[in-house]
Amino acid sequence: MPNRRGIKFIWGPARGLLRGVPERHALLAxxxxxxxxxxxxxxxxxxxxxxxxxxxxxxxxxxxxxYLFFPGIGMLLxxxxxxxxxxxxxxxxxxxxxxxxxxxxxxxxxxxxxxxxVTSALxxxxxxxVGAEAPIVYTGAAIxxxxxxxxxxxxxxxxxxxxxxxxxxxAGIFNAPLAGVLFCLEILLFNxxxxxxxxxxLSSVSATLVSTLCLGSVSPFAASVEPFSMRxxxxxxxxxxxxxxxxxxxxxxxxxxEDRLGRVKNPFMKWAVSAVALGVLIYLFPPLHGEGYNFLxxxxxxxxxxxxxxxxxxxxxxxAWTVPVFFLLVLLLKVFSMTFTxxxxxxxxxxxxxxxxxxxxxxxxxxxxxxxxxxxVPVSNFVLVGMAGLMAGVMQAPLTAxxxxxxxxxxxxxxxxxxxxxxxxxxxxxxxxxYSIYTKRIAASGELLTHDSDQAVLTxxxxxxxxxxxFTVVRIDATLRELVVAVSASKRSIFPVVDSKNRxxxxxxxxxxxxxxxxxxxxxxxxVYNYMISAQxxxxxxxxxxxxxxKFEKTGAWNLPVVGENRQYLGFMSKSRIFSAYRNELKDFxxx
Length: 592
Hints:
By secondary structure, the protein is mostly helical. Helix content is about 60%, strand content about 5%. It has three domains: about 10-215, Clc chloride channel; about 230-455, Clc chloride channel, CATH 1.10.3080.10; about 460-590, CBS-domain, CATH 3.10.580.10. The protein has helices at about 25-60, 70-85, 95-105, 115-125, 135-150, 155-175, 175-190, 195-215, 235-260, 265-285, 295-300, 320-345, 350-370, 380-395, 400-410, 415-430, 440-445, 455-460, 480-490, 510-515, 545-555, 575-590; strands at about 475, 495-500, 505-510, 560-565, 570-575. β1 (about 475), α19 (about 480-490) and β2 form a beta-alpha-beta unit. The longest helix is centred in the N-terminal third of the chain and has 38 residues, at about 25-60. The relative contact order is 0.11.
């Protein structure tokens, strides 16, 4: 097992600045510094997207036809940067952060401190239909991870700094410090002790202060919230159910479409198909352009959402009832535009599209209800609550959803409907989808950390580090005489049996040959294959510990052989070694 205990704290290149400072104290200072850097990164990303969009709008003038091509150009620029400069897959930022924690000891590559920021700014600035939140989370996590590695932090310290970076990124992009902390606790870091929450809080507050100082406190989600009314409770329940249906649709459609587009191996062919599809969608449905937040402003301030003058489908706005139909199509097609953007080489996340779709879902439902009885429900309230509802279902993070929307909108008066709708959406979605959009693929590979301490510890344990190789190997055609010589020279009671190509055939147990060990008359007539036992199960060196433990439980064995390709013998794995490693890992995992 890698040494994650951090018993001796080494500051590496930074030892001159923080010589002799205990890690738990140094974490607090580093978390503040991480938050400042993440706040600056969030500001840079916001400004980059804004200036690119403004520049393109000036270039296009009133020519809407150019918006058929702008998104594809942004995707191509991102594709070229990733393919020829970064040379690494940087998509699905939040999922990559989860994998770094569970598989790579919280280490994230240095280029991720800037690569996601640059490529997502180009992607979204040119009109890619994705969100900036996942790339900035990946950037923030990379800042924290690399700062921790630079300072020689232990695994736990580096993981906390990674989480501090992610929390600071969310807080900086939304000016919502509490949401940043909850995002980490619900999605990224599990079984966090109270002392571990403090660095997240410091980083989130620092990032929020930096973002506010640079950009002010004005939020794109500022809303005209109407007082909560008990008579609207049934409609909020209906909104929760609607969001749950959409969450299942979002998760399944996104992953299915990604798999289909993934079959196109040529990246430039995939870009061409995706760019054409995305350009057409944005031309017909302008709200799909970019993050889409600018289309939500009128709704949140109690105005009307009208895109009829900007789309060839203007006939949808001739009648009042066709407006919800148009935006229902926008709602359903956002998943496709988002997936086309990412598949075509763009870099962006699902966080933003989730908020956008939730807002549109709230609008569609409220507009439909008000068509039946005008003024029955407040549209702006339903837009906000819809954002939380869909976020709770898609990301399966209800607390993050509730407090993020409350913080960014100033809508704490809507806390009751936010809780009600988010809880219903989360609960119903879980009936059909056990995992979130971020964790479904990781869970299928058995690499997901969970709130279950046992499962989380097993995920962190690496099976290849538990292989024992000090067993004496014997050939299958060796005589009893040769076997006795091997026994006398070994401290083990098991002897793996291989053929001439080192392929495992089985093993011999000392208890099975004890009765014949002193019968010299059998030494040259009996052979290893006369005593050999076939293994009940085999373990692969890269197999998940969850799968390994199931095999031990199924067979009841105390030792199981480890084999590579073509059943090449590599060693054995024992329960006692696993239990010892598990105990050490659990101590570190639970360390306060």
